[in-house]
């Protein structure tokens, strides 16, 4: 039997209640020429996630792995030896892809041999109408919800988001791996974000180029609690922590006075009603706090072959 054209990867943890909707959407995917493979790693779930996955084994080209030790990047690295085909596609356990998603990604890879990294459209799937204070003019939905809406064309690492990302398989066969010191690991809700971005940035520095394919579309399911201010502020801290840990110090704000000013302003805003101004100030305060925490964290390198 011939090798499939591509392999799709994602890790999941304690999603038995929600993952059936995602897997059901995957059963509606059009297969690219040559077929495809799906590898899902159960990352130490304590619920019925594994049983749910097994229930779809007859409906999807599915390989199920287990990585008991929490860590999304650890789970993805464990799965990479299962890679077959010429393209590795990465996504999340809360997406609803269009039927031609894989066909479009593979066509983009075949039509653009100059690129090694590929991204596609990510549109939020809202559970309810957005409140007036939650606006893209205040905070970037790309950071909050991985929204990415742009035309097709050459792109940089920052244009490719984790729910809709593909990399040529040969890079992983040469030894490329995700850095396991960033991203969710089940131990700290204020973890440093940016695991996919960290990898893509390293690849770009090594000379690899990107292509964005707008026709490769999926929707990112937004949970109700992700529209609450508390969750948004935690996300701001994690985003700042990822920036502080992964990027050079000179690219981050060093002005201690600015942090103090935002801290005072944010404390005052807690007493005010919800508004775009309140969110803007409190969000910036948490981002600055996360960036400072990330810069103080021990640096953990990971050698990635070119």
Q: Topology, please?
A:
Layout: E1 6-12, H1 19-27, E2 36-42, H2 49-55, E3 62-66, H3 72-79, E4 87-90, E5 95-97, H4 101-111, E6 117-125, H5 141-145, E7 153-155, E8 165-168, H6 169-173, H7 195-205, E9 210-221, H8 229-246, H9 256-269, H10 276-296
Parallel strand pairs: 1-2, 1-4, 2-3, 6-9
Antiparallel strand pairs: 4-8, 5-9, 6-8, 7-9
| CATH homolog superfamily of the largest domain | Spore Coat Polysaccharide Biosynthesis Protein SpsA, Chain A
- N-to-C CA distance: 31 Å
Given helix and strand content, the structural type is: alpha/beta
Rg, rounded, reads: 20 Å
The CATH class label of the largest domain is Alpha Beta
- The strand count comes to 9
User: From the coordinates shown, what is the CATH architecture of the largest domain?
Assistant: Alpha-Beta Complex
**Overall 3D form:** globular
Beta-strand percentage? 15-25%
Number of domains: 2
Mean pLDDT: 90
For this entry, what is the oligomeric state of its chains?
single chain
Total helical segments: 10
> Main beta sheet, described?
9 strands, mixed
DSSP helix fraction: 25-40%
Helix-strand string: EHEHEHEEHEHEEHHEHHH
In the CATH hierarchy, the third-tier topology of the largest domain is known as Spore Coat Polysaccharide Biosynthesis Protein SpsA, Chain A
- Low-pLDDT regions: 299-306
């Amino acid at each position: 039997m011939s090798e499939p054209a591509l392999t799709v990867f994602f890790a999941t943890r304690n999603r038995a209640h929600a993952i059936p909707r995602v897997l059901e959407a995957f059963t509606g995917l059009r297969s690219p020429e040559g077929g495809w493979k799906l590898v899902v790693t159960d990352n130490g779930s304590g619920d019925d996630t594994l049983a749910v996955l097994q229930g779809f084994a007859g409906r999807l080209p599915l390989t199920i792995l287990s990585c008991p030790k929490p860590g999304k990047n650890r789970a993805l690295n464990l799965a990479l030896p299962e890679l077959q085909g010429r393209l590795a596609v990465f996504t999340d356990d809360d997406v609803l892809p269009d039927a031609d998603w894989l066909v479009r990604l593979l066509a983009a890879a075949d039509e653009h041999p100059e690129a090694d990294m590929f991204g596609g459209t990510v549109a939020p799937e809202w559970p309810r109408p957005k409140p007036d204070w939650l606006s893209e003019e205040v905070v970037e939905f790309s950071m909050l919800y991985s929204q990415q809406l742009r035309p097709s064309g050459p792109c940089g690492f920052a244009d490719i988001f984790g729910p809709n990302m593909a990399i040529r398989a040969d890079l992983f066969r040469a030894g490329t791996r995700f850095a396991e010191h960033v991203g969710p690991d089940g131990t700290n809700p204020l973890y440093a974000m940016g695991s996919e971005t960290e990898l893509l940035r390293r690849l770009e520095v090594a000379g690899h180029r990107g292509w964005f394919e707008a026709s490769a579309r999926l929707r990112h399911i937004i949970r109700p609690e992700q529209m609450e201010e508390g969750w948004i502020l935690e996300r701001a801290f994690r985003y700042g922590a990822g920036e502080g840990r992964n990027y050079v110090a000179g690219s981050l704000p060093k002005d201690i006075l600015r942090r103090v000013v935002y801290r005072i302003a944010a404390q005052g805003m807690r007493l005010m009603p919800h508004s775009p101004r309140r969110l803007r100030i409190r969000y910036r305060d948490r981002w600055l706090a996360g960036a400072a925490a990330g810069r103080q964290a021990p640096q953990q390198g990971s050698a990635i072959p070119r």
